[in-house]
Amino acid sequence: MLDSILSSIRRIICCVVVLAGMTPAATSQEALEAPLAESPRVSYEQVQGIFKQHCVSCHNEDQPRAELVMTSVDGILAGSASGPVVVVGDPAASPLYLLAAHLESPAMPPNKPKIPQRELNKIRDWIATGLGDLMKTSKPQTMKSNPVGSELKQVEPSWLSPLKAVSQYHRIAHLACSPDGKKIAIQGDSQIAFWNVLSKQMEEQAIRIDDLEISGLKFSSDGKYLWCAIGKPGESGSLARWNFDQQVFDVRLGQENDTIQDFSLDGSDKTIAIGTSSKLVKEIRIADSVSNEYKKHTDWVTRTAYGPDQLLLASGDRFGAVLLWDRFAQREFATLRGHTAMITSLAWHAQKDLLLSGDQSGTIRIWDLHSFDSIENWKADGSGIVLARWLGSDLVLTVGKEVGCQVWRIQQGTSEPKLIWNASLGYRILSAQLSENQSDLVVSGVDGQIESIAISAADGILSRLPIELNKTRASRSLVTYLPNPPTRVSPVQISPTRDTDDVDQAIEAAERSLLSARQTVAQLEEQVSLLRQIKQSQQTKKKAP
């Protein structure tokens, strides 16, 4: 009977595989024995979400079951009460993989089905490749310190690759201007692209970031490095430093469980502050990764900014609170309340003790840092502020989502500043950055527009230069697979003028395939249930006297 059931299961599995138009998938044991040299290189960011979903509910700092903490690389390397859980470069000797793949006991997660094979493959390849690269360049006991040349560093000569086209629906939410004004970094599709200001062309090479997402870009003050906030929303977030001379990511900082909301560098480029979705402001010393946390925000920290004398750090959150932190005493210095919407911009005055802030409701405030009062308060754009910056001593540039660019003159003793000029760009603005020379502005729109704009504080916009990214149109072909027999149907090319019969037929075919797959899954579940009953019966017989 058992042989009959196993034979039936094999037939069902073969049907499922053929139905999908694929060759039979490897078992966990076969996957383990696959040549690791052919495995893709996997970074910690790519497995961090898997651990968070399946492991950290039991293996965290507050509840380290079996003394194993899986919320960081440090905890994984520290191992459990039973010993090491990973052997760098050898998944076959790593309990972390073997238990998750149900190749050894106890199977993990306990009392739950095995996690999907594609996730097991990522864990396997991380142990074999990404973790191995990390250990080659950083000793285990210094993992919390600056892991130079971390898992972001690959075996390829560099992370540069040919610039590729972006989707027509790609939204460019992050931009950065180099200090010398010669280069603009642009968030691409799985890449960081560069616009050469002098040649007015996109550079042919871009930085790969694979399947990670960008949540921030900033150049160092000397222009030698580009800091990138990368990760996956709800799963991971870290900072990586791109070294232009060596063409590699040479530093990685932070291990957040969500994408980093914002970050800023101090004037010396020695310390970096990040805003997190865990309501914390974290300051990290770049040289050794020693960090300090500031706790008082009650929601996501959306903006950070260092004061010109480096004594204070400002941070704003999603509830509209602005806090000042004394960096040397490592404590709160002041709380500035008045905004009622998410803080979207913070900027310090270079000579005066003034702080400029903007929020999602379109409100701009100027704070006196002696009295901690809001001495100016006006509505610049009801649709929201994208950017607010000082231009000289008494001028303020604001970029609103709908209104566009505006320059205001702050007038002592008056309730509101005077509007000097206003320039609508003709599209809804998503992101904006002002260069250090305060005359070059780069802007992106919600429909994918990018422009380099020259402005004059007194005269307004002097010139506008579109930045063109090569874009691809989304595919409009459908591929369907018909069950019993599994005959592959040619792609259905859909044109705007063609009758919808082909689409309806494709939908019907896909629905039939889905129904067949569900029936197959139900059969497999019944067979598994019966096998478990047989196993339980056999174990009971063995225990009987």
Summarize the structure.
The chain is of the alpha+beta class and 545 residues long.
Unreliable residue runs? 16-27, 136-157, 475-500
Radius of gyration: 28 Å
Q: Give the N-terminus to C-terminus distance in angstroms.
A: 25 Å
- Characterize the biggest β-sheet: 6 strands, antiparallel
| Helix share bin | 10-25%
SSE-based structural type: alpha+beta
Shape from CA axes?
Answer: elongated
Average pLDDT for all residues:
81
How does this structure look, described?
By secondary structure, the protein is α+β, with helices and mostly antiparallel strands. 20% of the residues lie in helices and 34% in strands. The strands form 10 sheets. Strands 1, 3, 4, 5, 6 and 7 form a 6-stranded antiparallel β-sheet that branches. The chain has a 4-stranded antiparallel β-sheet with strand order 8-9-10-11, covered by helices on one side. Strands 12-13-14-15 form a 4-stranded antiparallel β-sheet, with no helix packed on it. Strand 9 (225-232) and strand 10 form a beta hairpin. Helix 3 (44-54) crosses helix 6 (117-137).
Question: Can you lay out the helices and strands and say which pair or pack?
Answer:
Blueprint: H1 2-19, H2 28-33, H3 44-54, H4 73-78, H5 95-100, H6 117-137, E1 160-162, E2 166-167, E3 175-177, E4 183-187, E5 191-196, E6 201-202, E7 205-208, E8 213-219, E9 225-232, E10 236-243, E11 248-256, E12 262-265, E13 271-275, E14 280-285, E15 291-295, E16 301-306, E17 312-317, E18 322-326, E19 331-336, E20 343-348, E21 354-359, E22 363-368, E23 373-379, E24 385-391, E25 395-400, E26 404-409, E27 418-423, E28 429-434, E29 440-445, E30 450-456, E31 460-466, E32 471-472, E33 477-478, E34 481-482, E35 487-488, E36 492-493, H7 501-543
Parallel strand pairs: 2-32
Antiparallel strand pairs: 1-7, 3-4, 4-5, 5-6, 5-7, 8-9, 9-10, 10-11, 12-13, 13-14, 14-15, 16-17, 17-18, 18-19, 20-21, 21-22, 22-23, 24-25, 25-26, 26-27, 28-29, 29-30, 30-31, 33-36, 34-35
Helix pairs in contact: 1-7, 3-6
